[in-house]
Amino acid sequence: MKNIGFLSFGHWTPSPQSATRSASDVLLQSIDLAVAAEEVGADGAYFRVHHYARQLSSPFPLLATIGARTSRIEIGTGVIDMRYENPLYMTEDAGSADLIAGHRLQLGISRGSPEQVIDGYKYFGYQPAEGESDADMARRHTEVFLEMLKGEGFAQPNPRPMFANPPGLLRLEPHSESLRERIWWGSGSDSTARWAAELGMNLQSSTLKEDESGEPFHVQQRKQIEKYHEAWREAGHTRTPRVSVSRSIMPIVDEIDAMYFGGEGESRDQVGQLDEFRAIFGRTYAAEPDKLVDQLREDEAIAAADTLLLTVPNQLGVDYNAKLLEKILTHVAPALGWR
What we know:
- By secondary structure, the chain is an alpha/beta fold.
- Helix content is 36%, strand content 19%.
- It has helices at residues 23-40, 60-69, 87-100, 134-149, 190-198, 217-235, 255-261, 289-297, 300-304, 318-332; strands spanning 3-8, 44-47, 74-81, 105-110, 183-187, 202-205, 208-210, 243-251, 270-274, 277-281, 284-287, 307-311.
- The mean pLDDT is 95.
């Protein structure tokens, strides 16, 4: 059995070919897709966060609204760029959204991806400290965020407060008790996967990875997951961690599917330069369900993960994507033992 959810990048464009032509469209349709995903039996609704782009950005209003409109599915991100975040304010936002959702938040956080603008985090008021990279800053923000999520008092109370305080040092409110165990790190390398394990975060193995061995993407990703689990055991954590991978899986069962994805053919991993490193990107799976089953059975990283996030073409609209999820859950997942 696997947890199966969708991951939306929340693209929008004013093009007449797009079902999401404005930010309003993509926000409202994201809510509707989460509701539809719950109705067809999916386990999660996850959203990518990008700044300065025609995509979804600040996630907490969306997550809280979905939490109020659904009752069962997990609600998450994949990922929030921690270079841009005030970890204390984020703790309050996340606690509020998680309480509204009934403790269903699954927050993926990370250093983030290449930006739309140069050093965009500086406009948000953040600068790496002397001798620190932007990735170091993201990890520093993360460590503060994780500490705040423990719910321990740290702030000296005012001796003459406006409202009565509980005894002792004060913590951030509202506090959600179990949210600390539902934080995931989006990792694109073996070293950051190990770091995530040491800090007790779940692992979101990225849609791309630093090409560290020249092997196929799914093999490198499976080895990354194994190294993560090894580091988790060495750290002595007592709970069982969770691991997700993301895939583009397009079942072709009718003419509409064939029109959109029939030309994909037998796609392959892609390799390219990303910032300072050589990156490998996973393939797209697009075929009739029986062929998909055969192809996916060979994916070692999917086999090693407990959670699969299906990247959806959100600009095709809610109805199409809800049917896409239903086709995977009906025609593909049972044959692979995921359901």
